[in-house]
Amino acid sequence: MSMRLLDVGLGRIRRKDGKPDEAELFSRSAQRAYHQFRDKAAFSRSMSVDEMEEVAQGRVWAGKDAASRGLVDAIGGLSRAVAIAKQKANIPQDRKVTLVELSRPSPTLPEILSGIGSTLVGVDTTIKALLQDLTFSEGVQARMDGILFERLEGHSNANPVFGLIKDYLSSL
């Protein structure tokens, strides 16, 4: 499988051929995201995962097609969703309600490092390897920011940016 990547950083874009292991990594990541989405969709639609897979098949369905397959409750936008929510909550349709956007959770360490890595030119291979280890860990995970930096301390490829990252994480 040949893969082309865009490497974006500090105002310039360059294309490069993806390495086979990068293609495999991307493929595994896409599969994991699909399975998570499929499983959540099955749960929310009160379907088994097998039933959801049979209906959805990894496709994106247009509104009416999705409705006919039981993948959505109704077709419409935000106002339709608010009307349905009011109905289910026994709130009169003419009553004004306030919509509150829930804040996003704090970014995880891999998300922070990914963001930094995509904007810095020549990010150390050390941080890439650690990020990969953190991202694909299948075990129990907890946010222990100091542990990562202890692993980096004294490493020959250490970068002064790590100190800034550590300070940022400790301020969250």
From TrEMBL:
Keywords: Hydrolase, Protease, Serine protease. GO terms for biological process: proteolysis. The keyword Hydrolase applies. The keyword Protease applies. The lineage of its organism: Eukaryota, Viridiplantae, Streptophyta, Embryophyta, Tracheophyta. Residues 16-91 form the Peptidase S49 domain. This is ClpP/crotonase-like domain containing protein. It comes from the Eukaryota. GO terms for molecular function: serine-type peptidase activity. Pfam families: Peptidase_S49. It comes from Trema orientale. InterPro entries: ClpP/crotonase-like_dom_sf, Peptidase_S49. Belongs to the peptidase S49 family.
